[in-house]
Amino acid sequence: QVQVVESGGGLVQAGGSLRLSCGASGRTFSSYAMGWFRQAPGKEREFVAAISRSGSNTYYSDSVKGRFTISRDNAKNTVYLQMNSLKPEDTAVYYCAARPVLYMLEVLTASSEYDFWGQGTQVTVSS
Q: Is the N or the C terminus of the chain less surrounded, counting Cβ atoms within 10 Å?
């Protein structure tokens, strides 16, 4: 059974920073491609950022590029989302997703490509 668990959400003022963390258990963490998605009230879930198994490949949505950074520490079984220069429109529930993949450099950007999801962590940015 694979468990994906996020942490690090909270309330922050516009312009501030937060770092989300996510762990995935069940098999070797380095076998997973990982991604972050978010869902705001009344909106569909949207892609935020993704990272390959090795961590060498990353991909971002246009809305967060230059402000958010995804990274991973395979020794700690953790993927991170550093969020800087936060805006009120970043307010959402943030979800971490995992999928075991064969290729070290593969990056997955569609929610349908992921097999395992966390429960989500709330991020609220006040203006």
A: N
Contacts of 114 (CB under 8 A, 6+ apart): 35, 97, 98, 99, 108
> Both tokens of residue 12?
């922050």
Q: What is the tens place of the pLDDT at every residue in 12-52? A: 999 999 999 999 887 789 999 999 999 999 999 999 999 99
CB 25 within 8 A of CB 13: no
Pair 86, 16: CB distance under 8 Å: yes
How remote is the C-alpha of 72 from its chain's centroid?
Answer: 10
What are the phi and psi torsion angles at 44 (to 5°)?
-80, 160
Amino acid at 118: G
